[in-house]
Amino acid sequence: MPAPFADPIPCLSDACVPPAIIGMAALTTAAMQGADADALATMIDRLDADPAARFYDTSIAYQLSFRRAEGLGLQDEAVSESSLFRIRRDGGNRASIRLLAIVAPGVLMLNTPLDFITNHLDVRLDLLFVVPDKPLPATIPDHDVAFFAVGEADAAMVARLHRLFESWPRPALNDPGVLPVLARDRLAGLLAGVPSICSPPTVMVSRNRLDDLLRDGGDISDLLPGCSYPVLIRPLGSHAGAGLKKIEDRAALDSYLLFSFATSYFITDFVDYRSADGLYRKYRIAFIDRQSHLCHMASSQNWMVHYLNAGMTESADKRAEEAQAMAHFDETFAAHHRNAFAALHEQVPFHYYSIDCSELPDGRLLMFEADSAAIIHLMDREDMFPYKHTHMRGVFDAFGNMLRRHATAVEPAVSR
């Protein structure tokens, strides 16, 4: 086994000014508002003077245009040119809080979306990329607080990031050592005995194991003891419902595998979480220093609820329900699930993370997943979602207040 990668802590300097990039939040918002690939390219050409910045922003534009492989290739070029980038803000780079995000190269949903969260705050955001087998820069921008933003990593990267966290010279948030707890199968097991939570049994299984199960006539209970069809299947490492399917029987599993080429999957017991009116409801809740904040609530006739395809823009009634849920979240949903949230925090001791969840008819919190990289944003049209533009600014302000609290806390200068 190779020796663990050892990183000397870089020097901190106000003279270090990284290449300025447009960043994911501004480019994604432009795409959501109708900008096509050509319009994004024009935006990048107009604003990005540094070649590394142009590579980086173009990599985002390509991924937004469903050209992932090309986008990731350009990202590799950008990061090979510079491990550091600074998010361009309209008001310049003078800010009351200097935030350094420690990130990793990869798909858009790999890192905590600090760009989206801080876009409306008086925060200067710098990105420091930690690349496998590559040392950190000798000098990085000085900052008030660091945020370890990698949302998913292998064991070697987790160990490397945790060592950095332990020795970071500024207050640091989100210990990467917690990341393995967020794995779907592990978190489901940790929460299985909590009375106020329904955390459906989940197992990680190889493609070969599934092929053997079908060939030998095995039952799904061989993988998930005590469970039966239907179950949910998704490729390991997939996001935003990519490859997610409800499997009703053996024939459906066989058919699914004919068109899937992943090597590993998560299998989860399916829980029917329809409300009395026949609709499925999904809540995205952000926890900021353990305080809960509702970031969206979508309802749909489909069990796989995604905010963008739940018909929120077409239904004034759905938007009115979400507005009420946001306005009264603290005294209703959050109050009802206080014990569930407390149990969750015991297992996920992050400063910031979010969950996707629902509420079962018996009153339990139904957990879908916990994540530090799920997007919370303010991209919805203000004329259609005026309540979100008020509510979400409060969520972002809470995040800013968390940064200030930790930035001004008295902590050791080198290690904690």
Account of the protein in words:
This protein has 416 residues and is an alpha/beta fold. It folds into three domains: 11-176, no CATH class; 201-269, Dna Ligase, domain 1; 280-407, D-amino Acid Aminotransferase, Chain A, domain 1. It contains 13 helices and 17 strands. It has a six-stranded mixed beta sheet. A five-stranded mixed beta sheet has the order 9-17-16-14-15. It has a four-stranded antiparallel beta sheet with strand order 10-13-11-12.
Q: From N to C, what is the helix and strand string?
A: EEHHHHEEHEEEHEHEEHEEHEEEHHHEEH
Strand content: 15-25%
Rg over alpha carbons? 22 Å
Number of domains in the coordinates?
3
Q: How many distinct beta strands?
A: 17
Number of contiguous helices? 13
Query: Separation of termini?
Result: 29 Å
The major sheet is characterized as: 6 strands, mixed
Percent helix, as a range, is: 25-40%
- The low-confidence runs, each spanning 5 or more residues with pLDDT under 50, are 411-416
| Spatial arrangement of strands, main beta sheet | 2-3-5-4-7-8
**General form:** globular
Please tell me the overall pLDDT.
92
Class per helix and strand makeup: alpha/beta
Task: Give the helix/strand layout.
Layout (H helix, E strand, L loop, with lengths): L10 E3 L6 E2 L2 H9 L4 H11 L3 H14 L3 H14 L2 E4 L9 E7 L10 H5 L4 E7 L9 E3 L3 E4 L6 H13 L4 E2 L10 H8 L5 E2 L3 E5 H9 L15 E5 L9 E3 L2 H9 L5 E6 L10 E9 L2 E10 L15 H12 L5 H4 L1 H10 L4 E8 L5 E7 L14 H22 L9
Parallel strand pairs: 1-6, 2-3, 4-5, 4-7, 7-8, 9-17
Antiparallel strand pairs: 3-5, 10-13, 11-12, 11-13, 14-15, 14-16, 16-17
